[in-house]
């Protein structure tokens, strides 16, 4: 500052002062205008992002509601179409006229009614199990996944195997159910669309992360396909996977193996969130 | 435009933000508005006192009050900024810079009073203060573009206060810097820059007080609201 003063002593002080002031004011005004426009641009960009995120949320919510409705319709159909007729038939066997029949016919009718009621109990149990698998509830995710994979392998069409490397500490039941439903949906997609000959699932942990990886040798999808489908009106199951994982603040990655032979799906969860 | 008219306009212009403050949504809820209110009242008092001193041609008094004003103005604006900054690093920087300024300017004031080296204007202290406050203003704007906020910057109280301060101090920086080298006639002529910038600053302060929002990046409103404590 002193340097500036000394230097300008010889020069025309008035001129320096005049142009210096004009320059400073011009710089200040330019800076303020730049800041205003820059901030406007950033806010507009943020608002666009927010809008896109809201639309995505809306899609996920719609998918979730549709899935719930479908599930309710399925349960209603099971109860109406299967349990309803069974119970009506049992009622027929046990009508008021039964007391007027001979003893052998009475016993036969009671036996038939008992058989039908047993079938109804089994049916209701199946419905209940589909809502909350008992293996998952009693023995955890590892057993439920192994159980599912054994059933798939038992069909003889596809070889399914699962290996849990580090699952000593179980996730909470609600979170296990979410992960299990995601795995079920992925398996369902593989069985329906991929024409794979094997599915292999592995579980492991790394630091604070919990990973589930699935490999298969069929026709799979990449992350780009997943992103495209979850943003479109189609892909209800995929949207459902995304909304379920959002609850756990988890992520899912679809990729083709570097060897170009397998497709790989990775589910990544935060252990703190899930446990 | 006559010099006397500009001087009077500059003094009276302080009432514009003070009237705006009466209609302000913020009133005294935030510490920043209190600081600016005190600053305005002090500016008005200083203008009146120096006017009286000028009329009596009391050079020592003019110099003393002007120098004291430079120091206290810096302290008040420093308080405004430290309550507005979010970053701790910037706050620390502000504390260091302002402490340095206070030491330098206090020593300069003391020495000139003791040695009886009285000038019309303490050029070094004023320009140093201007420079430091311009830097704080730039830091404020830098912070604003760093922190993602959905509120438009020109809708906030602090932004307009900083714009007013920036325009005033950048407009008067070269005047304060060259004040020593100016002849009496030149000083009287160029002092009009200070008067115009002061009027402009007060108008912008009035705009600031009429803003409904304060910046969302700090929580001083929460801390100073008696209904919330």
Description:
The complex is a heterodimer of chains A (275) and B (229). Chain A has 275 residues and is of the alpha+beta class. A five-stranded mixed β-sheet of chain A has the order 1-2-3-5-4. In chain A, a hairpin with a 6-residue loop joins β4 and β5. In chain A, α2 packs across α8, α6 runs antiparallel to α8 and α7 crosses α8. Chain A is elongated and about 130 Å long. Chain A starts with a helix and ends with a helix. Chain B has 229 residues and is an all-alpha fold. Helices cover 76% and strands 0% of the residues of chain B. Chain B has nine helices and no strands. In chain B, α1 runs parallel beside α8, α2 packs parallel to α8 and α4 packs antiparallel against α5. The termini of chain B are far apart. The C terminus of chain B is likely disordered. Classes of the chains: A alpha+beta (275), B mainly alpha (229). Chains A and B meet through α1 and α2 of A and α6, α7 and α8 of B.
């Amino acid at each position: 500052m002193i340097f500036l003063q000394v230097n300008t002593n010889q020069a025309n002080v008035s001129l320096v002062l005049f142009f210096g002031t004009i320059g400073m004011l011009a710089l200040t005004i330019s800076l303020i205008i730049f800041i205003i426009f820059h901030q406007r641009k950033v806010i507009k960009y943020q608002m666009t992002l927010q809008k896109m995120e809201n639309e995505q949320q809306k899609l996920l919510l719609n998918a979730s509601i549709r899935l719930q409705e479908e599930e309710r319709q399925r349960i209603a159909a099971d109860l109406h179409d299967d349990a309803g007729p069974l119970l009506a038939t049992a009622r027929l066997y046990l009508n008021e006229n039964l007391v007027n029949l001979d003893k052998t016919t009475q016993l036969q009718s009671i036996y038939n009614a008992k058989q039908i009621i047993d079938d109804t109990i089994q049916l209701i149990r199946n419905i209940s199990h589909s809502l909350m698998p008992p293996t998952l509830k009693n023995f955890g995710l590892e057993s439920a996944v192994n159980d599912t994979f054994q059933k798939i392998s038992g069909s003889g069409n596809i070889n399914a195997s699962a290996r849990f490397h580090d699952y000593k500490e179980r996730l909470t039941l609600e979170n296990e159910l979410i992960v299990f439903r995601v795995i079920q949906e992925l398996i369902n997609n593989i069985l329906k669309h991929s024409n794979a000959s094997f599915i292999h699932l592995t579980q492991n942990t790394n630091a604070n992360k919990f990973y589930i990886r699935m490999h298969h040798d069929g026709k799979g999808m990449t992350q780009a396909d997943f992103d495209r489908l979850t943003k479109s009106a189609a892909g209800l199951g995929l949207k459902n996977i995304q909304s379920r994982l959002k609850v756990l603040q988890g992520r899912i990655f679809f990729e083709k193996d570097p060897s170009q032979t397998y497709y790989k799906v990775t589910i990544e969860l935060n252990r703190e969130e899930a446990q | 435009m006559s010099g006397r008219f500009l001087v009077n306009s500059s003094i009276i212009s302080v009432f514009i933000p003070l009237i705006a403050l009466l209609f302000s949504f913020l009133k005294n809820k935030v510490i920043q508005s209190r600081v600016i209110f005190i600053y305005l009242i002090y500016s008005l008092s200083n203008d009146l006192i120096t006017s009286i001193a000028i009329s009596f041609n009391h050079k020592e008094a003019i110099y003393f009050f002007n120098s004291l004003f430079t120091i206290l103005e810096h302290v008040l604006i420093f308080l405004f900024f430290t309550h507005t900054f979010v970053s701790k690093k910037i706050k620390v920087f502000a504390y260091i810079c302002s402490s340095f300024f206070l030491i330098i300017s206090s020593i300069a004031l003391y020495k000139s009073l003791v040695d009886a080296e009285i000038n019309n204007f303490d050029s070094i202290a004023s320009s140093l203060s201007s420079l430091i406050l311009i830097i704080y203003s730039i830091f404020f704007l830098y912070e604003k573009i760093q922190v993602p906020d959905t509120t438009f910057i020109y809708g906030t109280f602090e932004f307009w206060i900083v714009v007013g301060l920036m325009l005033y101090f950048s407009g008067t920086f070269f005047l304060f810097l060259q004040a020593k080298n100016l002849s009496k006639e030149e000083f009287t002529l160029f002092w009009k820059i200070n008067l115009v910038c002061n009027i402009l600053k007060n108008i912008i302060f009035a705009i600031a007080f009429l803003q409904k929002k304060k910046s969302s990046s700090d929580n001083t409103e929460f801390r100073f609201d008696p209904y919330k404590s």
